[in-house]
């Protein structure tokens, strides 16, 4: 066991061929992240900013066009055959939709048994014992194993999908919005399950979400992603108390109010503008076309990540001011929304 990160992603880039001839979709661009054993880390950003592509590239479902993925310090691109298979198994992906990730025709027992066989567990008795253990770990009764996966509720199916991922003793789970398809009442239960798994099994978890509140509860650290790039990263509480990139401030300001009346009276905009196309990302800072603080410089160069406090950095030329408590981006965004309202009326 090392004390280093279990997963290290270095300067990862994933580009897709665009439908526009000769162009590329810059889905993930120069992303570096780390996950330590037993840690839950959040990855947040709007739709289309590249979260799933990053997760899928890490587990090998997409091919990186540059950069490296290291598991326990070993670069996966240097492995082949059984060694690569073992490493891939240590990285598991939990999908958003618990309906598409399971085979309808299988019973719960068969679904889990299949994963255990892939993991090389030969004896039937061992597999049965392990199935029971896995069901227990995800909070399902043993009797569930004889039911077809299609008969289960969304929350139960997601638990079965998680049990299948756990069957191969992964070191890292990439959880791609694993609760967004679930009823609000079930979400908290499945979230608690993730917290327990992390405590009991020490599995590290990269938790992808739109919802900052959700991540705030569960994650110790958070990465904020915008148009293929990490724009801010820090310990959860620090990032929530001192968001230091205008985009993070916008995301935080957009968390809907629980109270519908307060939500209707909201002054701060939900989100201003739309994410530009990743086929033609803006020059310099990619957020500049929506940023209420953008200046001429932001067009010219990609802002480097500035260190703000231990483990907290943000890639904005104004990051230090914003970190010092200036909420100007937020206030500016509010003013911009008022201007947009005025223009619309
Ligand atoms: N196979 C593909 N070929 C071409 N473009 C793709 C492919 N997969 C994803 N993209 C594009 O890459 C960008 C990032 O997509 P991705 O699904 O990673 O975003 P996301 O942050 O997960 O969004 P969401 O929150 O909606 O799930 C999008 O512009 C998407 O259209
Ligand atoms: Mg996604």
Automatic annotation (TrEMBL):
Topology relative to the membrane: Peripheral membrane protein
Any one of the GO BP annotations: transmembrane transport
Gene Ontology cellular component terms for the protein in this record: plasma membrane
Compartments in which it is found: Cell inner membrane
Residue ranges occupied by any ABC transporter domain in the UniProt entry: 7-252
Originating species: Aminobacter aminovorans
Keyword presence, ATP-binding: yes
NCBIfam families in UniProt: oligo_HPY
One function term, GO molecular function aspect: ATP hydrolysis activity
Keywords noted in UniProt: ATP-binding, Nucleotide-binding, Transport
Classification lineage: Bacteria, Pseudomonadati, Pseudomonadota, Alphaproteobacteria, Hyphomicrobiales
The protein's name in its UniProt record: Peptide ABC transporter ATP-binding protein
Parts forming coiled coils: none
């Amino acid at each position: 066991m090392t004390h280093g990160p279990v997963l290290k992603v270095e300067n990862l880039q994933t580009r897709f061929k665009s439908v526009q001839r000769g162009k590329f979709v810059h889905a993930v661009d120069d992303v570096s992240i780390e996950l330590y054993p037993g840690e839950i880390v959040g990855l947040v950003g709007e739709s289309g900013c590249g979260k799933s592509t990053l997760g899928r590239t890490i587990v090998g479902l997409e091919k990186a066009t540059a950069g490296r993925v290291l598991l326990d310090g070993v670069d996966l691109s240097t492995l082949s055959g059984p060694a690569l298979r073992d490493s891939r198994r240590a990285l598991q992906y939990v999908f958003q939709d618990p309906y598409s990730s399971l085979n309808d025709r299988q019973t719960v027992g068969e679904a889990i048994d299949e994963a255990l066989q892939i993991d090389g567990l030969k004896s039937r008795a061992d597999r049965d014992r392990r199935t029971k253990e896995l069901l227990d770990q995800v909070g399902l009764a043993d009797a569930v194993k004889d039911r077809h996966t299609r008969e289960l509720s969304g929350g139960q199916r997601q638990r079965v999908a998680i049990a299948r991922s756990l069957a191969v003793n992964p070191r890292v789970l990439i959880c791609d919005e694993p609760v967004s398809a679930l009823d609000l009442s079930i979400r908290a239960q499945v979230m608690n399950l993730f917290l327990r798994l992390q405590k009991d099994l020490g599995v590290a978890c990269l938790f992808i979400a739109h919802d900052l509140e959700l991540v705030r509860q569960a994650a110790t650290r958070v990465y904020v992603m915008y148009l293929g790039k990490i724009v801010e990263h820090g310990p959860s509480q620090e990032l929530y108390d001192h968001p230091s990139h205008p985009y993070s401030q916008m995301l935080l300001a957009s968390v809907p109010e629980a109270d519908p009346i307060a939500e209707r009276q909201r002054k701060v905009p939900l989100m201003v503008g739309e994410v530009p196309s990743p086929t033609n990302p803006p020059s310099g800072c990619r957020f500049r076309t929506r940023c209420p603080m953008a200046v001429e410089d932001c067009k010219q160069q990609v802002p480097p990540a500035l260190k703000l406090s231990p483990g907290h950095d943000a890639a904005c030329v104004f990051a230090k001011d914003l970190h010092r408590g200036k909420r100007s981006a937020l206030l500016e965004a509010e003013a911009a929304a008022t201007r947009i309202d005025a223009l619309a009326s």
